[in-house]
Amino acid sequence: MKDSDTFTLDGKTIPFQPGDTIMDAAMRAGEYIPHLCHNPEFAPHGSCRVCVVEVNGRQVSSCTQPASNDLEVKNNSEELVQMRRSILQMLFVEGNHVCPGCEKSGACQLQAVAYYTGMLSPHFTHFFPRRPLDASHPDTVIDFDRCILCELCVRASRDVDGKNVFALDDRGIKTHLVINSPSGKLGDSEFAVTDKAAHVCPVGAILPKHQGYEKPIGERLYDKQPISVVGDVAANEDKE
Amino acid sequence: MVASTDPELNPQAFTSALLASAGNDSCELLQMLHALQLQFNHIPQASISQLSEALSLSETYIRSVIGFYTFLHETPRGEYDILFSDSITDHMLGSRLLLSDLCDKLGVERGVPRKDGRVTVDTTSCTGLCDQGPAILVNGRVLTRLDAHKIQNIALLIENCTPLDEWPSDFFRIENNIRQSNLLLSHNQCNGEAVQKCIDNGADKLLEEIDDSGLRGRGGAGFKTALKWKFCKEAHNGGTNDRVVVCNADEGEPGTFKDRVLLDSQADNVFEGMTLCAGIIGARQGFLYLRGEYLYLKPQLEAVLAKRRDKGLLGKNILGKHGFDFDIEIHMGAGAYICGEESSLIESLEGKRGVPRKRPPFPVTHGYLQKPTVVNNVETYLAAACIAASGSEWFRSVGTEESSGTKLLSICGDCEHPGIYEVPFGTSIQQILDACGASDVQAVQVAGAAGMTIPPEEFERSIAFEDVPTAGSFMVFNNERNLLDMVQNFAHFFVHESCGFCTPCRVGGALMKDLVDKLTDGKAGRYDTDEMRNIGLLMKSTSHCGLGTTAPNCVLDMLDKFPYIVEEKLAHHASYEPAFDLDEALQEARDISHRNDSRAHIRTDT
């Protein structure tokens, strides 16, 4: 490996290692690129598109774009921030995200990234989908209203837990999370609260039962400092 | 009731037979599901369990594959499963009236199986028969040129439970409608000549010949064919020499039907091109990925493959050359436009949901089962075979500097002679309109729903990679048409066909569709057209694949090039109109309170 493997991110020089994506190198260098479906413990996915950056005039997802020498990468231009804001607004109107009534509020990555990008309203017309809650499992509840289809639970259950509890069904705007069990309910599946899949959801879709607001509003993960400083929900799992 | 032991009737026995012939290979999942759907009008639960067990895949996974493809269903469709082609040109030929007519006659609601299970009537994306529409699929078989009389007959045949084989044969007649032939359509059958040249002159020499011809991919993107083949040939991916040749016959772009005609009239040369590619890159495995709508072509294509095997043009030691082993298998699609995207197609070949892969890596290094893979269009392989046989000079003698050779166009819509036109690259749109007998033209939609809307002031532009590129779709709209109907049809099409993987296409496309509907209803203001533009630009720049980046084209072209369509429809009194109708929203309250007096309405005019 040469010492000279670098690219620039908003003018700053970022070193990278062979096989790195732009996101990998930026994270290692302590530079924050907003993201939702990316979790460094898993293979890059590239579905949420929140991590969009501009490389040589083209928009790409930084979590999947390989780093290469002398790339000029834009991260925080007004244009990119506006794109991210719009993508986040799309996620907000696609599901039913009612922050004031959500146990995850204050420690939710979707909310934190929305604050970070200066999103002030959902802007677009709400879809108001009907998605019944699944409280069948003794330890975990799934609120599909808040699912953003990042597939982190799908990937964790398949790749780490070896259980394949989750999958995405249907396609397009009808795409939704499903559970592998005879009744389609979590309680009938092999899911356990100790699974990796129980600890990767960046939003309030997969939540532990028997606890509520243990950490009061005001002291939560993103209450005092922005996500660019605090980092991802999954990375702070043990602190929560 | 005792379960039947006849494998034709018993899902368990049928599934076992499928699994046995597939060698329990999970790559065959989609093929098995497709066969089950055709046999039982749905995928029986027992079969899902059986497949899950045998393939070590979760039932949810299998259901998620079924859920992805529109031709697969977990609940039974009617014994007669009727799908009306829902392309804009079918609409223009009156398909929607015929659909509601048939629904009325059969007493069935669109999309819902009749109570006795006899019949379902629904729509599907373009079936590739736009030159002889309106078209329908009945249990996978194609009926063309529908009219009120035929609809009446069909309703009777269904009520009488007449088997499809006994329906009037002229219902199923499909025409090739070749109107203009040039290099490719008038080329003789190669009969192994191209493959023999590869053996005689060596792979490198042949690759050079293809390179000299300037051949570029006919799927629309126009990547240089020789370069793609070279990348694949040189790919060293874990030291494997296992390379794969894939022919993309998932012709799903609305208004395109030239691959259907090529596979009917030139299949031998298409397979010759694939074999040539295999000889050049060193592949042993080949696939023809055939869209589900073209199921009826499968038997004749299998026959061509069998004949080529008999002649030593496929199989082991091709044309006697030791170690030149290559064969081609036909895989069926099952109703997913996205599978025309090469990495989705590969996922689908592996039996999965057709979600586009992230790139890089590209298929030339990591394709089917991570093996180096060439994916080309039907027409590209045909051209490659003809070039190998007749030489690069012959090919270059036609076309432009950057776009050599010819392009097959599928022309439909408002013209006297719809059908297949093989035109030299560089031919102007006006020349093409003259040739197909189109007059009083308002616009031409080139390259399908994902393509460009061309206004008359641009009719001197020409079909070429450097000007107006196309995979072949060419739809003509005269001045009687409301182009907004086309835009609306495409917006709905993309919502239906989006794979749902990335946010901008999944959600942005649905928001766009709602805005187009709002405009069509005369309820949109300036604010909404600005929103359309913003969403469209976001989709173009941030979507994961070509579907999302091209989906907003028709809306953006309408805003930029056909402002009069928008002006006519804008609600002039306001720059902003809410997305819902307040008075309509009160209907539920009126129903509950049994009121309908003027004071129960927001508007005073009702």
Structure commentary:
The complex is a heterodimer of chains A (240) and B (606). A five-stranded mixed beta sheet of chain A has the order 2-1-5-3-4, with helices on one face. Chain A has a two-stranded antiparallel ribbon with strand order 6-9. Chain A has helices at residues 22-28, 78-94, 109-116, 152-159, 227-230, and strands at residues 6-9, 12-15, 52-55, 58-61, 72-74, 140-142, 166-169, 176-179, 206-208. Chain A has two domains: 6-76, Ubiquitin-like (UB roll), CATH 3.10.20.740; 82-210, 2-Layer Sandwich (Alpha-Beta Plaits), CATH 3.30.70. In chain A, β1 (6-9) and β2 form a beta hairpin. Chain A is α+β, with helices and mostly antiparallel strands and 240 residues long. With 606 residues, chain B is an alpha/beta fold. Chain B has six domains: 11-68, no CATH class; 80-175, Glutaredoxin (3-Layer(aba) Sandwich); 180-396, Rossmann fold; 406-481, Ubiquitin-like (UB roll) (Roll); 484-569, Up-down Bundle (de novo design (two linked rop proteins)), CATH 1.20.1440; 580-606, no CATH class. Chain B is 42% helix and 13% strand. Chain B has a six-stranded mixed beta sheet. In chain B, β10 (406-413) and β11 (419-424) form a beta hairpin. In chain B, α6 (95-106) runs parallel beside α7 (148-159), α8 (193-201) runs parallel beside α12 (267-281) and α18 (483-497) packs antiparallel against α19. Classes of the chains: A alpha+beta (240), B alpha/beta (606). The interface between A and B is large, with 37 and 37 residues.
